Amino acid sequence: MISLDFYFFPLYIFTLAVIVAIIVMAILGLFKRSLFNRLSTRIAALILASGPITLILIPVSNELMRRAFLNAFTTKGSLAALAIYVLIALGTPIVLGLLAARFVRRPLRQFNEAIASLEQSNYKVQLRSMGIREFDEAFMRFNNLIHRLRHEEKLRKDLVSDTSHELNTPLTTMIGQLTAMHEGKYPLTEERVAILKEQAERLAELVRQLDAYTKARMPDTGEPEDIHLRQFCEEFINHFSLDLKRKGITAKLHIAEDYIIYANRGALQQILTNLMQNTLRYSQAAEVTIEAAAHKLLFSDNGKGVPAKSLPYLFERFYRVDKSRSRTTGGLGLGLAIVRELAESQGWAITAVAGHPGLMFVLKISA
Description:
Helix Hairpins, 3 domains, elongated
């Protein structure tokens, strides 16, 4: 004969399970809304919850086994007790495991979908915050990477268009002039030869920029040496004296007489040359200053500067603040990219900051 309380025992177990589940979910809910929203905290909460659950279920399991033995000759009662025992023994870790897996499964599913989109060259994909710090930190870095890839893709597409234009313009002019002279429509004059020479020089300059960028990315075999920076910069400015005078720009030096840096002379010369050419072409400045102090070389002007949104991209390949395609203000945008490559080859770093007015390049020189 099976006692009446045997049939109420499953209800008792179910009630306990519901109470424990509510406690666990309440704990996890608090963690979800807290500032310490970590995957490790949630998993730890589940592990901690398993302790009280075990303490509650041990006497329950013992009671079930006792009843199973007492009802050994009653098949129905014995099977029911054993079934409940197995349900408790297997169901508890399964429920806790599913809760733990849920914290990992949803972020991973979103991440896999983003990777699949990226494989299809979809650079607009963005990962949403999941409310779990470890995943959100990784997702933020992934989104930043996607943003950079999207920017690089835009630059790559712009390169095709820009290079095509820069090559097509002088070639079209040269072919038109040569064809007309070959057909006898235009006479061969010094003026037309000068036009052809100018366009050929434009092509040569384009090739020179591409070649300079390629070389800047290659390891430099030149040996560094001690350079008296003030004397070096004085000679450098003298080299650009005619260009500076033509633009109405005054050059100033704020460098101590005994200031010495250990660097590759050719790399430093190319860095300063590209910075000066950038200033001459785009700055519309009246003054340019070179200053050295505390392992920093500052190259600044008081010109029109650049928009704040352009500052992070000035050293990117093929980036141009001025999107026009004119020869005087356009170009491929490789000059400052070459500067960065040369600086990094020396173990230095270069940044651009607003000069108020103008633009300042900060070259951090290793000690």
